[in-house]
Amino acid sequence: MRIEQLYTKCLAEAAYFIESEGEIAVIDPLREVQPYLNLAKEWNGTIKYIFETHFHADFVSGHIDLAKRTGAQIVYGPTAVTNFEALIASDNQEFKVGKVTIKVVHTPGHTLESVTYLLLDENGKETAIFTGDTLFLGDVGRPDLAIKGDLKQEDLAGMLFDSLRNRIMTLPDSVTVYPGHGAGSSCGKNMSSETVGTLGEQKQTNYALRANMTREEFIKEVTDGILPPPQYFPKNAMMNKNGYASIDEVISKGNTALSVDEVKRLIADGVLVLDVRTQDEYIKGAIPGSLFIGLNGTFAMWVGALIENINQPIVLIVPEGKEEETVTRQARVGYDNCVGYLDGGMKPWIAAGEPVEIIESVTAESIADKIETLSVVDVRKPGEYEAEHLEHAEHVALDFMLEGLGNLNPDNLYYVHCAGGYRSVIAISLLKQKGFKHLIDIAGGFDTIKKAGIPTTDFVCGSKSKQKQA
User: Residue 100 and residue 160: Cα distance in Å, rounded?
Assistant: First the structure.
């Protein structure tokens, strides 16, 4: 028996390969299927089952394409309803993969159809659980994504409590926990950066698995502080449930070289220009009206969070050799309507004398003595801002910027910062699209603000205290 975790850092997502006697089960595959086909060939095995833990909201799964390419059976848990051929398993149903057994354990709470897959070894020993979004290392799945009819998030949290206590925590402490996500995912609040652990460790360290925790305490703690989900989540869930275009077709269409004139015509027709270079390259010269989301960050998550129309036609400004990768990473979150990329990047655009927009960037040191007189916008996450911030900064989290511009005046001058410089440039490009004219980036973000010795404010026991950073 072999188990392989295929972890994708950009999405903080884990897929799994389980092999025994030449038969393979894949759990929660990503959209692009070729890596799974390659691994199956390398292992000299045949993919027999594709197990889905639930209808994913944060990425588009590769279950449909992988089934078409291999003939493998797609398996969902109880209550799932799909618009494609799939086996809807019953609770406790078992599937043989070579000499090992994979057992369906219905664990509703994150979603109603959520399941945990229990792996039994050749001797029937309970060996590992593949928990999807039911149990993470350090956290559990958010219970607010599958609210239907009269159901509330508190109702789902109660189901999750029962699932954890009655179906998972009763297993041996030695069972290995393979979660669906790690730190950085929006599917939980407090996930560990570790991606493999044991159930015994989780009983000791995971707040949601505390001994003697009451159902009411669990519901309160799990639902407290949940931020609204990114706007693309329900769209991805519907794609996973209803089906989607072939990834090969999406890549073929998007991986198309375009001339300057072709890009200009597309812009005139309302196509979005998405610039995926580094923030340093973007601020030195970009196509006016373009949106910056660099490949060097959590690219796919920000594409999903900030581009409201999932069918938006997109033209890319991309580093040479990164064209197919960019199209693929967009497609992981359902943005399939990429129509091509500017051949040669910004060089032919500049050579043709087309307009270029430059973003002014300043160091924290250069404005340290006057920063209290400046209008500063902090675009970090709420938790980052609450932990420590400039006392007079206006907080507009990038995650919710599309809804949070009410307190900002498009005609004012704003100095924008995040933690390290990536998100602030995304924010500036987005604000410029919304009509803001005077924006300056604070290079290096809050990290450099602290290093410059600029006074900041944090929250201690609910009160504010100023701290001078050395």
Answer: 28
Closest CA to 116 of 152, 89, 142: 89
Evaluate the CA torsion angle 314, 315, 317, 319 in order and state its sign: positive
Residue 339 makes CB contacts below 8 A (sequence gap 6+) with 253, 254, 256, 258, 266, 271, 313, 314, 315
Helices vs. strands in the chain: H and E counts, helices first: 16, 24
What is the per-residue pLDDT for 466? 39
User: Rounded CA gap, 315 and 172, in Å?
Assistant: 52
407-439: b (≥16 Cβ within 10 Å) or e? ebeeeeebbbbbbbbbbbbbbbbbbbeeebeeb
HEC string of 65-127?
A: HHHHHHCCEEEECCCCCCCCCCEECCCCCEEEECCEEEEEEECCCCCCCCEEEEEECCCCCEE
pLDDT at 459: 59
Cα–Cα distance for residue pair 413/399, rounded to 1 Å: 22
Closest CA to 447 of 412, 414, 431, 423: 423
Pair of tokens at residue 144: 């607010």
Round to whole Å and give the CA distance between 366 and 369.
Answer: 8
CA quadruple 339, 343, 346, 351: dihedral sign:
negative
Instruction: Report the Cα–Cα distance between both ends of the chain, in Å, rounded.
Output: 54
Question: Residue 388 is which amino acid?
Answer: E
How many angstroms separate the Cα of 212 from the Cα of each of 203, 207, 216, 243, 467? Answer: 11, 11, 11, 43, 39
Nearest to 14 by CA among 48, 40, 53: 53
Q: Looking at residue 468, what is its pLDDT?
A: 35
| pLDDT recorded at residue 403 | 85
Low-confidence ranges of the chain (pLDDT < 50): 461-470
Superfamily of domain 360-467: Rhodanese-like domain (3.40.250.10)
Going by C-alpha positions, the residue among 292, 335, 229, 320 that lies closest to residue 422 is 292
- Enumerate the CATH 3.40.250.10 domain ranges in the chain, comma separated: 246-351, 360-467
Segment holding 354, helix H or strand E = none
Topology (CATH level 3) of domain 246-351: Oxidized Rhodanese; domain 1 (3.40.250)
The CA distance from 463 to 423, in Å, is 28
